[in-house]
Amino acid sequence: MTRITNHLPTAELQALDAAHHMHPFTHAAGLAQKGARVILRGEGCWLTDSEGHRILDGMAGLWCVNAGYGREELAQAAAAQMRELPFYNTFFQTTHVPAIALAAKLAELAPGNLNHVFFAGSGSEANDTNIRLVRQFWAAQGKPDKQVIISRRNAYHGSTMGGASLGGMAAMHAQGGLPIPGIVHVGQPHWWAEGGEMTPEAFGIARARELEAAIADLGEDRVAAFIAEPVQGAGGVIVPPASYWPEVQRICDAHDILLIADEVITGFGRTGNWFGSQTMGLRPDIMTIAKGLSSGYQPIGGSILSDRVAEVIGGIEFNHGYTYSGHPVAAAVALANLRILEDEDLPGRVGRITGPYLARAWAGLADHPLVGAAETCGLMGALQLTPDKAARARFAAPEGTAGLRARERCFANDLVMRHVGDRMIIAPPLVISEDEVDMLVARARTALDETLAGLRADGLMVAAV
Ligand SMILES: *Cc1c(COP(=O)(O)O)cnc(C)c1O
Q1: The dihedral of CA 4, 301, 376, 351: what is its sign?
Q2: Fewer CB in a 10 Å sphere around the end CB: N or C, the chain?
């Protein structure tokens, strides 16, 4: 069997990496200085790097390895499909068994009348598809002005021109002339940072009503859709107040605005149900899926459409698609992955066992002097770092200073935890055991202690005025 082997020492790999490999979302010169960590292998929730460290992966890769690393069945599904039919397109009135089987399975798993799948290679591509889809949905019904898509500040919907425009990341909009026209952003339901004196419940309603105000401002007949993540992921695992989603759903219904639930992270068990929409009680018209769909073993994404949307789009020729839409190997692996999630009832396990277990263990970190809030939803978690928890204060130091230090201390303690500004976030594989949750939380606490000591030593436990 041919495989990529490595006999090089870490320093040489790092030098080659720095010389030739451009990393996403990375300051290349800065990384070259310290050298990238080289990951060699994965098993369950554990990674092994080129120095032999065993690292607990609190981020499931990039929110995607839901079934855990080292699943032999998925390797076999890929190999078998490559031998049978490694590629065929679905453009020209042809189809193949893996795409058919996966679409049918997704229609069965997705709630309500979400029964039709348009495949893409990633979450970003799927959201680009959604932009054209919802605009064409209204145009095909004689409403060509119903074009604007409303999204939220600090949302993440991908990195293509369309995906990044839908997203509300200021740092991304600052590069390359984004957002594209016809996309409007309203406030996010991030009570800790933006709720001021309001109760979380009142704030949730207020943020939902910003959507209604934007619709009134633009005119209902100019707004095509609202897109949102049921729980914001890359924005910092922001669990909305309970009042938020019911009000958003009411507003979308009242004004005939399509609701796109971006389930790229929240789908496939992450929140304790198959989809975050079920956890949050939403009835989306379209769902964006990717990541956990294949547990990251193959790049695949898609849009799941309701009967109503599919009927309209099916009545025209939709001039859109990707060479790898429904790629047979990716589809076969995704199907085998869904079988694992189903056979091991991983969504149910998160909902009944590991989610509540993490919630309790994680809440224990709220007593740490550096932690202003410890929140979870299923197997997503966030710690808000603060110099003064009573005041919900930000640091005087530039945003992300404390978070970056905390992430470095996590790495040093063989735990992958990510930072978004001064929020620390986790989303471990759904196969994580209770013992591993305890280990994760213990390592996080050690990292917090070390971070706090460093911040104090450098005079950085100071609130912004
Ligand atoms: C990761 C992500 C995307 C983009 O998916 P890619 O596969 O990286 O293109 C879109 N939406 C959400 C909510 C995501 O987390």
Answers
A1: negative
A2: N
- Residue 52 and residue 77 in one domain: no
Residue nearest (by alpha carbon) to ligand 1 atom 5: 123
Kindly report the CATH number assigned to the domain that includes residue 197.
3.40.640.10
In a mutational test of the pocket of ligand 1, which residue from 157, 159, 169 has the highest number of ligand atoms less than 8 Å from its CB? 157
Please give the Cα distance from 241 to 251 (Å, whole number): 16
CA 422, CA 395: separation in Å to the nearest integer?
Answer: 8
On whether the CB atoms of residues 163 and 176 are closer than 8 A, the answer is: no
From first to last of its 465 residues, what are the pLDDT tens digits of the chain? 567 767 899 999 999 999 999 999 999 999 999 999 999 999 999 999 999 999 999 999 999 999 999 999 999 999 999 999 999 999 989 999 999 999 999 999 999 999 999 999 999 999 999 999 999 999 999 999 999 999 999 999 999 999 999 999 999 999 999 999 999 999 999 999 999 999 999 999 999 999 999 999 999 999 999 999 999 999 999 999 999 999 999 999 999 999 999 999 999 999 999 999 999 999 999 999 999 999 999 999 999 999 999 999 999 999 999 999 999 999 999 999 999 999 999 999 999 999 999 999 999 999 999 999 999 999 999 999 999 999 999 999 999 999 999 999 999 999 999 999 999 999 999 999 999 999 999 999 999 999 999 999 999 999 998
Query: What is d(CA 114, CA 274) in angstroms, rounded to the nearest whole number?
Result: 13
Q: Considering the entire predicted model, what is its pTM? A: 0.98
Residue at which a domain ends, from 321, 343, 365:
343
Q: Note whether residue 464 is domain-resident.
A: no
Q: Answer whether the bond into residue 387 is a cis peptide, omega within 30°.
A: no
Residue 350 near ligand 1, beta carbon < 6 Å: no
**Letter for the amino acid at 150?**
I
